[in-house]
Each structure stands twice: as C-alpha cells, then as structure tokens.
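Exam revision sheet. Question 4 asks you to relate a sequence to its structure. Input first:
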Amino acid sequence: MSQGKKEVKNKKQGLHPRNKHQGQYDFKALKSSYPELSDFIKPNAYHNESIDFADPKAVKALNKALLFNQYDVKYWDIPQNYLCPPIPGRADYIHHLADLLGKSNAEKTPVGKKIVCMDIGVGANCIYPIVGVKEYGWSFIGTDIDQNAIKSANKIIDQNPFLNEQVEIRHQPRKNSFFNGILKKGEKIDVSICNPPFHTSYEAAQAGSLRKVGNLKGKKVSKAHLNFGGRSNELWCKGGEKQFIGDMIYESKKYALNCLWFSTLVSKESNLKSVYASLKRAKSFSVKTLDMGQGNKISRVVAWTFQDQKQQKVWQEKRFNS
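Answer key, structure tokens:
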C-alpha cells in the first residue's frame, strides 16, 4: 500500500485542452448572447475590447454572457455581495477531475448522470454543477450552510431545465462539517470538490481585495469592493484555508468507502506542506496534486483516496461500467 503517495503533474501555463475558454474573450458573440454586457465593454491599454475586472457589475455581466453563450444557460443571477467566481478557472477544475476519474477507469472519462459529484459550498452561483452537467452529464449534490445561497442556487436550477433532474441542493446544518449531515447512510459519490475560504478574517479578505484591485488598476488603491464579491463563509473562516482543508481531510476518512476521490482547491502553495501532512496522518492511500494554469496564475487541486487498487477496481466495475 502506498499511503500518502503524492503524484505531482508538471506545471504548465494555459487552461485545460477541453476548456471552452481558451484565448481572448469573443466579445462579439458574448454581446449577442447578453446585450447588457455592451454597457461594460471598453478598450483596454492595448486598444482591445475588454471590461474593468475591478468593477463587480462588469464581472457579473461577463459571467452571465459566458454562461448564456457557452453553456446554454437561460437564467443566472446571484444576490448582491455573493461570490461571483471566474468561470474559466472553475471549468478547469471540473475538466481536471474528469481526467482524474478517467485514470480510475482505464483512461476513459466517466460520463452521464450515474456519476455523482458533491460540491462542498456550492454557493449562490451554482457554477460547478452548471459546468459539470453540461460538459459531462454528471449529477451533483451541492451543499451550503447559507440558506440564501441555497435559495439562489435552487432558483438557477429551477430556471434551467437541463439542471432540474441532475442537481440537488442540500442544506448543511453543521457549520464545521463537510460530509456529516449531508451524505445519507450507504450513499455513494464518485468525487467531491471544494473551493475553501481562503482568508482567516474579514480584515485579511479586505487587504487581499485591495491588492487585487491595485494590481488590476496598476496603482495603489485605498478603497475597493471585492470584485468577485463574497460573504464571510465564502471568503474567510477561523484558521483560513489551512485549517478548513485539514478539518475536511480528517472528516473525509470517516467516509472512505462513500467516495472514490475527495478533492479541494489549495490557493496558497505554502499550505501544501500542511495538507500533505494531514493526508499522511489520515493514512490516505493515494494523493495527487493537479496544477492548473491561467495566464501567469498557477493554482492547484489536491485529490486523495482511501481506497486501494483492488477497491478502486471494484468501484470502477460497479459505478463506471455497470
């Protein structure tokens, strides 16, 4: 048994080959799908059409246009101040996980609604289920502790028929739990995904926003709105990303036979050492680190399983090829 073994892919720039968001945004097509985007488009420093990525309204309009144009979404909206995530990066996570599941299935990507993905902290935006259902036909269980986020996600599902039968949103009543209180006895999921709160406090989140907006504008700023929004449970928690992921790993061991691959985004590279240590303590069978590139930004997904090769083979036969 290779407990705690880490498999690290070579870092490379660029989105996943199957990601629809390669290259520059096609603003002509996006405006056609969502005309309101036109109000936010203006020339950038290179005289190309763009938007002000420091403007929350512009970012939200861009997301609507992308979803309408490339995922056939008929309705999408989020309440004010809720997280409005960058869609290309979220799509990359889904595509890399599809590859991961494929490696557990003789290099054949499992597709269809029998494949179940659990989105821990689905949020008001419901982005991961939209991409996963549209690209691979998977089913989703989305969880959240925020009732307003759940209400928003359910409205998106209700207004888009292709999501109706394949996405279920469940309220997580236990603030510090992940699978406990959500998974039913004997219920199986093929993979879990999560975008953890990054910061340790409101003040840290605000400081991070100032840096981000300053970088976007090319100058120091003293006041800024979070350009992608976000509430406390979305952006910060006690102990930040490191503690959140450590707690998730600890709890995941109790559900070793309920899920083939657990996974999470790890935004801060310096947190990887702690994540690997937690996985070693939990006695995971295999750990994989998947690097994702978008421009000059590198992010990563850490995935782990407690199932040995024999158990994975049985899972493949029963769930992927039955």
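Marking note for examiners. Strands lie at 5-8, 42-43, 49-50, 116-120, 139-144, 167-171, 189-194, 259-266, 286-294, 297-305.
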